[in-house]
Design a protein that fits this description.
Radius of gyration: 42 Å
Number of helices: 1
Strand order of the largest sheet: 2-1-3-5-4
Helix content: 10-25%
Structural class: alpha+beta
Strand content: 25-35%
Length: about 210
């Protein structure tokens, strides 16, 4: 081998380069897409809660009109069972057979005085029902069959009814009836004294 060839130089070892100082890790932030998904999810939860409230309200049904009645109002009864209601109607209407003598809360144990009809209007999922004591609306011309019942007697067509109101007097009569001779039935009501329900004597004849 020729001595003129340069001899291989020993490899130089460079010192390892020191790394840059470590930066504190950055806080992870949700991407815009993730933020939108979370926002939509929270809205769904909120709307769902509102939906539960609306659903419960639908289950309970609309508020009963009987809740707003006061003594002296004349009413028409509608529905039956859980759907029963009492709707305020003008007292001179030929379709208004009853007058409210007393209102209260139906807690299961209540009654009306003799001569008045007991009627309860339930309020599902809204608390206690409405308790009503009803009298026959003192209006000449209304017709019924049996007025001696404990529940409100239905209004009847006078062409087939057994009794028709022939006279009305604005006071209660216990001993001497003011009704004309030939009267078939007499009903007399006394006001409770603390309401707009008025005392009356109602005379019935056979149509």
């Amino acid at each position: 081998m020729s001595e003129n060839w340069p001899r291989p130089q020993p490899q130089q070892h460079w010192p390892q380069q020191q790394g840059w100082p470590q930066q504190p890790p950055k806080k992870k932030r949700f991407s815009t897409k993730t933020q939108i998904i979370l926002l939509v999810a929270s809205l769904v939860v909120a709307i769902g809660g509102f939906g539960v409230i609306v659903t419960l309200n639908n289950i309970s049904g609309p508020e009963k009109q009987a809740k707003t009645l006061t003594e002296g109002d004349c009413v028409v009864l509608t529905g039956s069972g859980k759907e029963a209601d009492a709707v305020k109607t003008a007292c001179d209407s030929p379709q208004a057979p009853y007058a409210v003598s007393l209102t209260g809360v139906d807690k299961g144990e209540w009654d009306c005085k003799d001569g008045f009809y007991k009627y309860a209007v339930p309020r599902p999922l809204r608390g206690n029902g409405v308790a009503l004591c009803l009298a026959i609306n003192a209006q000449v011309g209304l017709c019924f069959d049996d007025i001696r019942t404990k529940t409100p007697p239905p209004l009847k067509d006078c062409g087939s009814a057994r009794l028709r109101i022939s006279e009305v007097f604005p006071q209660m009569s216990v001993v001497n009836s003011p009704c004309a001779e030939g009267t078939a039935e007499v009903v007399s009501y006394a006001s409770y004294g603390t309401s707009n329900f008025k005392s009356a004597t109602i005379c019935f004849v056979t149509p």
